[in-house]
Amino acid sequence: MQIVPFLIIFPLVVSVLMFAIRVNKVRNFFAYLSAVIIMVGAGVLTVQWGMQGFAPIALQYDATMVDHVILAAEIILMILVTVLSFKYKKYWVSLLSILPTGLIAYFELNKPALEEVGQIYIDHLSILMCLIVGVIGGLIVVYAVGYMHGYHHHHTEFEDRRYYFFALLFAFLGAMFGFVLSENLLWIDFFWEMTSICSFLLIGYTKTPEAINNCFRALWMNLLGGCALAVGIVYFGYNAGVVSLHGLVDLAVAGNKVAVIPVALIAFAALTKAAQLPFSTWLIGAMVAPTPSSALLHSATMVKAGIYVLFRLAPAMAGTTTGFMIALIGGFTFLVTSIMAIAQSDGKKVLAFSTISNLGLMVACAGVGTAETIWAGVFLMMFHAISKSLLFQDVGATENALHSRDIEDMHGLLYILPRLAIFMFIGIAGMFLAPFGMLISKWAALKASIDERNIILVFFICFGSATTSFYWTKWMGKIISASHLQEKTFKDITKKNEVISLTIHAIMMIALCVLFPLISRVYVTPLINEMFGFGENVLPDAILYTLIVVIVLVFAVPFFAHLYSKHAKVNMKLSYMNGINTGDNRKFVDSMGEEKTLWLSNYYMHKVIGSRKLMVPSQIFTVAVLLIMLSMIIGGVLV
Amino acid sequence: MKLGFAYVLLYIVLAPFIGGFLEGLDRKISARMQRRVGPPVLQPFYDVKKLLNKQTITVSTSQMFLLITYFVLMVLTGALFFYGADLLMCFFVMSTAATFLYFAAVVTSSPYSSAGAQRELIQMMAYEPAVLLTCVGFYLAAGSFNVADIAGGAMSNIVFLPGFFVAFVFILTIKMRKSPFDTSASHHMHQELVKGLTTEMGSRNLAIFQITEWYENVFLMGVVGLFIVNSNPISIAVAVAVILLVYFLEILIDNSSARMKWQQMLKITWVVTLLAAGVNLIMLMVVR
Q1: A483 touches chain B (CB under 8 A)
Q2: pLDDT digits over A539-562, tens only?
Q3: Which of A89, A449, B17, B123 gives a 20 to 30 Å CA spacing to A327?
Q4: Which domain holds residue A344?
Q5: Does residue A383 contact residue A355 with C-beta atoms inside 8 Å?
Q6: Is A493 among the domain residues?
Q7: Do B99 and A476 touch (CB under 8 A)?
């Protein structure tokens, strides 16, 4: 399996290359080429693994050399963080990097005799992650080439450092491959730190005061998680004499007390990465960066790393206090951030809040940790990855054309920028509408949380799904409303490569929806089987047939209805405005007898449920929950 | 299996007649409550027939296709229910149908229609938790989401689910667009909202909307009946009696209350849902 080291190292090499090439056209060419190679590489890995029978494979290398390289790289990252922290006068942040790196280095040099296990582990879950990172990450790179060209064309105030931007994108992809394929916890720790620092540098790309501020917030929150991770790993290494992820999960499932604290600490670390409350603010602040980096952070990388770890730990957390804590935080985040999303009118902010909210549901699924919830969680992850990547790219392209990303300005987008509007519609539909997978995942999550008698989670899901539908439907309605504008004032200036990426995303979205039952049977059920050792089809046949009927109808009915109504004879009339229309539906006579343009707006209720009102109380609540429950867990083992 | 299809067929054929007839009764009883004579019981059918024969007048050409989709999805909701399929799926399809109704209203960019649609959306947010929790209740009581299993139990589910019943009847007022919660399409004339959501629906489009409402009402009454029905055939008669009683209650509430603001509606509905369904749920989880 030469492809595994290739997948990890190749993006890192490309990253250096990107940094070195300063001619845009040449760099763009290599970026395209490398993105395609990465996508193909992820495919090749899948095929090679499939030819070996779709069974989990642990690869073992004589990796003393690699261990040393990784340790050296980790120290370099630490120095980088320290230098930047001092440069921007955030001295204390450097401590969060120095402490865990020191701890890991100490452990590396004084480690006990460790049991020899593989460093790389390939199974259904890691292959799925590789495909998400490879395909969606690759497409984002393709999109970024066109987007960044336009970005620097419009934003002349920022220094053009595209070489740096692309270097980071590829480094990020390499780190993600390393992260999801590693079995050795020390490697996982390194790649973890690397994703934290890549995202930190990406967020700070524009170097505005706001960007600097937000990127340091992202940095300290993620490094805090990194600290917990390092402590968990070292504690586990000394006590159990093994530093492999599966070793940890197996011990925990067997009920060994040694594994309790590491599982809790690593799960805590995953919460920071998945931007759950109280750590949600970093992901919202991350929006200051150019759109491709948001797309990358929200869909293919970063936050998915947190979810990936939680899925891995799920069997270990099922039925434990840690599991309860994670499910509680996840469910709470799902509800509260979806309420906050209602109050946002900035398109990207809605996407950010909805990401956090959806991640909350996945986190809750992992916390409950049964076969059913992980099944639901895996589907949520797949749908979310494609849909969010599509939406971010689309909002970015819309912003370039419309010079605004406010949802209110997207009124009648379908008639102004039809192509982008249709992509947006597909993306949003994928997020919540039947028959797209979100619903069926919600179905499974709800059923499992009832079976587990998790009353709180049942409430969070019921209320959270109501609020989720609200903000999405509102947005979709805005897109299809008849436009306020008289003629075509905006031109669709989306670049060809952006359209290619968007189209592929839209096709994948629809394919995932249609093939959903098939994917469940041939891929996700075996994944569950691997994780839990049993795996009857989570989706009962009755539901499956219902679902197929719904899928067929929801796609076919609007189509035929549209054909029918197109040929129906209609008499067009003006809309009702108490008889004061002025000839069309866009203007009316105001009380001064003058013509006034009609503007329609959605409800936002920002005074009641805005993030300013809700964020701090919910952060306080979640911090309290985390503190109390972590001390209960750790105290319970130590005392 | 065959029985399921027979029910579906019966539903598709009979539901508009039952729904229309219930509406006729509704108008008659409402009129008597207001000391009027009221229209004949068959008046809703005359209205719809007249609407169907008129030429289509509309503000937006796409409205009709959105309404047809709304109609088909709502029929599908009921069909799934009477077939005995998964209750949660029924409600998911119903909420998708409702989304298309919202689209049909906002696609016009008409001020009254859009204002009504926004409120419709808030209504959806208000009733959805209660609807989902009702499914949860049935699942706990009967051990299955399948309507067929729920209806085939030895005991009526209402024994376990009194709180859920209260919550469901409460949101029924919203779903049936009855005062005090008729915020999206006020059915009484001369209000600030004109006819809200339905302002721009005329002739054939309005007929489609009306017929869909009938299908929807029959489906909702079916869910009310599901609380009562068990394996004993007599329970069906009881269920019909309870349905008529609930319908009468809705008419009574409609005629004795003034319209609320949406803020109050949202707050009250969620509080009632939390209290009635929530307490019931906690007790049920302890028992079962």
Answers
A1: yes
A2: 677 777 777 777 777 777 777 777
A3: B123
A4: 318-567
A5: no
A6: yes
A7: yes
